[in-house]
Amino acid sequence: MSAFKQFTTKDVVITPFDVNKGFSFTGTAMTASDVGIEVYAGQKPTSSVFISQSAIPTGFVFTQNTTGIYHSIKQLYYSNYLSSSKGDYGVSQSIVPGVTREDDRYVGPINAPRYENYLQSTLTQSRFFPTGSGTDGDLSVISIPTKLFGENIVPYTFETTYTSSGGLGFKVVDDGDGNLIISSTTGSFGYGAGVYGALAYGVEGGVVGQVVGQIFYSHGIAVFTTSSMAALGAEMSSSLVNLDNLEVKFSSSLRIYEHQYKCVISENEFLFSLNPTLLSGSLDDVYYDFVTGSIFTPYITTVGLYNEQNELLLTGKLSFPVPISQYVDTTIIVNFDT
After folding, report:
1. Which residue has the higher pLDDT, 123 or 129?
2. pTM
3. What is the spatial distance between Cα 92 and Cα 147, in angstroms, rounded to a whole number?
4. Which residues pair with residue 181 across a beta bridge?
5. Which candidate, 3, 104, 165, 316, has a CA 20 to 30 Å from the CA of 157?
6. Which residue in 80, 31, 87 sits closest to 59, CA to CA?
7. Which residues pair with 314 in a beta bridge?
8. Which residues contact 235 (CB under 8 A, 6 or more apart)?
9. Which residues, in sequence order, are bridge partners of residue 146?
């Protein structure tokens, strides 16, 4: 049998806190069913068709096409940065009319971004988006699934290292403000025909300290738009060519909530047991004599939490039966995380 008591607001404390976990994946480990990291190549189409029928497949598990990747990244993250690396702004100030023109008031900022491009910092960010022809219209994307990064990738923790078969490569890290920067390089690398059909080209390796793209922490998306990094996706293919030369590291962040319920039993509460085995048996409502004496004290073995519909949500078992005090309050703390 059970005895119930309503919680008050001071008896319930819910505390959020963030937990982090680091990950490191190299090569085909990224394509495992419980991982699913993708490396995509984006390429500006040669025609005005949004999704060209000649678009080349890209990705390892969830295959996309190079034209679709290019346009998606452009729309989501770079639509404000097509004509200016500092961002294209539109007038957003509003006029509150007065009785006369002299009484008109202007409210709001004078300039604001035209589109939402998911800025990762309050600092003015410079972004470059490739709009040229041929290899000058290429970009690359590393896509990390939500099941790995949780709420977001922790700033300052993203790192990717690529080394070509010839020993040339680079290491890129994020600066905590949404920029991807070369931290070290071993020169330049190039690749020939077979990646984009008949195309053959070489790409400069970049210099240490150069911004080569942006990372969007809450989306798990890293975009490379300049130098060798823009060609990273083209270095890979659906057949996993060169994938073993790539390493991706990052830390995930997940917010969990600690629930604390303070179950307070006052000194004059629950001093009478509802256990049916204490009935004398002769009558349904008559208890044994020792139960009604002043020295009898019920014990607590289990605490259950119910919702407003009287539905049991969870139970907590005590390690040993605890007697209810007749002289002071008895308090049991229930903690659980969600």
Report:
1. 129
2. 0.71
3. 38
4. 173, 211
5. 165
6. 31
7. 305
8. 162, 164, 189, 191, 195, 241, 242
9. none
